[in-house]
Amino acid sequence: MFWFLTKDCPFIEIFGHLNAKSIYIPSFRNLSTTAAASVKNKEGLKLLVTAGPHARKSGLSMTDWKFIGGLPPLSGEDWLIEFEKYKQSPEYKRVNKGMSIDDFKFIYWMEYAHRMWGRALGIMLALPFSYFLCKVYITLQLGLRLSGLFALVAGQGLIGWWMIKSGLEEPASEYAEPSVSPYRLAAHLTYFSIFVMPEPPAESVAWVKGAAKVRRLSLPVTVLVGLTAVSGAFVAGNDAGHAFNTFLKMGDTWVPENIFSMRPLLRNFFENTSTVQLDHRILATASLVAIGGLWVSARKLELHPAVRSLIGSIVGKAVLRVTLGISTLLSYAPVSLGTAHQAGALTLLTLMLLLSHTVRQPSLSLLKTLPPVVKTVA
Is 374 contained in some domain? Predict the structure, then answer.
């Protein structure tokens, strides 16, 4: 589900969960010679494109979730207790066994900061809501909307823990690494909240008609951009960014041979790393082309300057997103570039949703007051 969000910070959301790993199944990774050779240099490149060995440590350090409270360890003894809890997790036993307490503190503070940021966002909504409610400034209709919004904010936290919980469970196979569910990661990453938008900018009937034509184009493009963002979440959740690190081709071929290696067939689109990456490439390319077509079509219409400027920003952000995506791919998906790429994708989705709201039809009362064309001052 997609909601237009001003509540969440995409950078924090992605940074907190981009490091999810996939279950490694050798029979599903029939990579080409080029792709296989590129993996040999992967470890050396990781040290160059991340913050060194500490940043290579990934993990779900906090093994429990408390709705209220949750102070960080305040003493050496507290840290040892928290570390012992982590040592009981499948991730420590299979992935990070032998890690030092300093490395544990590094991943712990990343996750703790993410949780506290989310709670702070909830408080920032709850405090003014409570104040205006006590002052009787909120009508029943507005109160219901704000209550729904607050429920969505709380739901974001619950979905986050639901996602993390999957990474703390024992994998189905003794050969598999523990990882968060890519389905739950996608749900957490694409969960947003709606704010009621003001009246769309409209100063003439001509601009309203132009906006109506843009609206017919922007809605399907918004859906396409949204699907691309969701497919990016599955790329991160399945660690599919490491499947093929070449562009334009995927290894030696345009289409990998093993894209239909799973049964049932539908699982290929969500769990097969080759297919997941191919789907994301196709959707990203289609989104860029569609946004380019929207921009070309809009140039011929009479539009409010704010709408025209917004479309220009969307084109720029789309180009930047693709550039970051290719750079992430060729650099073996470092966390830094991957974070920037996914933040850009969610920003682009936000801009498309904003455009869809901006070009919606004004209220009938406003339409009756508009002149046929824009009045210009000599």
Answer: no
The Cα 145–Cα 194 span in angstroms is 10
Name, in order, each residue with C-beta under 8 angstroms of 338's C-beta and a sequence gap of 6 or more. 14, 18, 236, 241, 328
Calpha distance 163→180 (Å, rounded):
6
- Answer for the pair 296, 348: CB distance below 8 angstroms, yes or no: no
State the average pLDDT over residues 271-291.
93
pLDDT at 59: 56
Percent pLDDT > 90 in the chain is 19
Structural domains in the chain (count): 1
Nearest to 65 by CA among 7, 126, 118, 124: 118
Is residue 297 within 8 Å of 217, Cβ to Cβ? yes
Cβ contact 107:83 at 8 Å: no
pTM for the full model?
Answer: 0.66
pLDDT in tens, 1-40: 334 333 333 333 333 333 443 333 333 333 333 333 343 3
DSSP assignment, residue 250?
A: B
Structural domain span for residue 195 = 10-26+37-367
Indicate whether 208 belongs to any domain: yes
* C-alpha to C-alpha distance for 63 and 36, rounded to whole angstroms: 35
Q: Is residue 1 assigned to a domain?
A: no
> What confidence score (pLDDT) does residue 172 get?
72
Rounded Cα distance between 335 and 75, Å, is 30
Q: Is the pLDDT of residue 367 over 80?
A: no
Distances (CA, A) of 131 to 16, 84, 122, 136: 31, 43, 14, 9
> What single-letter DSSP state applies at residue 362?
P
Contact 208, 202 (CB under 8 A): yes
Quick check: is 98 in a domain?
A: yes
Q: Read off the amino acid at residue 295.
A: W
Cβ pair 370, 333 in contact under 8 A: no
Task: Count CA atoms closer than 13 A to 283's CA, side-chain side.
Answer: 24
Q: Which residues contact 248 (CB under 8 A, 6 or more apart)?
A: 254
